[in-house]
Design goal:
Helices cover about 30% and strands about 25% of the residues. The protein is built from 8 helices and 9 strands. The longest helix is centred in the last third of the chain and has 16 residues. Bound molecules: adenosine-5'-diphosphate (ADP) and magnesium ion. The site of adenosine-5'-diphosphate has 12 residues, from helix 1 and strand 8.
Length: about 250
């Protein structure tokens, strides 16, 4: 008889039943999807659900300022500010630290020199995996986090001369994250759902959030799909999702 392993419930309505009751503790899951597909909602809902049960959660933002995420997420009934007061939920901004005011100061400079244009509009460099990991480790220890969300993998500078070196760097980063002992969701911008990327191989589970134009009805359709979930019997279908005041809910098959 196989011993039933304890599961980490996600708090996403209708989701845990698709994956034998929840995530496995201490594992790393990838939630991938295009902009506006619900990645941030999924992550914050997962942390808020843990927070209510007394498990401290940490949301690392690299893509948008923490204030913007908190502001957007306070529109749901997650009670994020209440959980923050109780120290059951923390948002930490690890995004590019350079000043963002270059646009205001550079706006009135009109130039036909292409290189000068690039220099004026160039974004600050995203942080390296080593610096991001060091900070995450610090905050996980400080807040005794049990649940961790990283938003997003796409905002870390994994650049290297060869694609193989870049893949090695991503693998190394995710392996280090696994060693932190938190049940972790890494968010990533979906580039191509049909080609597998190294982060999908390294993660213990992969979930896609779809947001696409249905040409028949000419409306946007949203769905969730479990692509892989190690050590778990799971549903493989694309299922409709809905956003309400209480967050994300998973509905019937598409
Ligand atoms: N309080 C809310 N009630 C209903 N829908 C919402 C609410 N807040 C956001 N949404 C919807 O959720 C979508 C997904 O947002 P988000 O989780 O930020 O996606 P992503 O992080 O993938 O870009 C938004 O495009 C919006 O349509
Ligand atoms: Mg987001």
């Amino acid at each position: 008889m196989v011993e039933q392993r304890k599961r980490v419930t996600t708090g996403i309505h209708g989701f845990d039943g698709l994956i034998q009751g929840g995530f496995l503790p201490g594992r790393v899951y990838l939630v991938s999807g295009p902009p506006g597909s619900g990645k941030t909602t999924f992550g914050v809902q997962f942390l808020a659900h843990g927070g209510i049960k007394g498990e401290p959660g940490l949301y690392i933002t690299l893509s948008e300022p923490a204030e913007t995420i908190m502001d957007d997420m306070s529109n749901y009934s997650f009670n994020i500010f209440g959980l923050m007061k109780l120290e059951k939920l923390q948002f930490v901004d690890l995004g590019p630290t350079m000043a963002y005011n270059y646009l205001e100061s550079g706006q009135n400079i009109i130039t036909t020199d292409y290189q000068a244009q690039i220099e004026l509009s160039s974004e600050p460099e995203p942080p390296t995996p080593a610096s991001v990991f060091k900070e995450i480790h610090k905050y996980v220890t400080k807040y005794k986090a049990k649940r961790l969300v990283i938003d997003s993998l796409s905002s870390i500078r994994f650049t290297a001369e060869h694609p193989a070196a870049e893949e090695k760097s991503i693998t190394h980063f995710i392996r280090n994250i696994k060693n932190l002992g938190c049940t972790t969701i890494i968010l990533s911008e979906m580039t191509n759902p049909h080609s597998y990327t190294v982060e999908q191989f390294v993660s213990n589970g992969v979930i896609f959030l779809h947001n696409f134009l249905d040409e028949e009805s000419n409306t946007m359709k949203r769905a969730i799909q479990v692509i892989k979930m190690r050590g778990t019997k799971h549903d493989c279908d694309m299922r409709r999702i809905e956003f309400g005041d209480a967050g994300l809910s998973v509905l019937n098959k598409m």
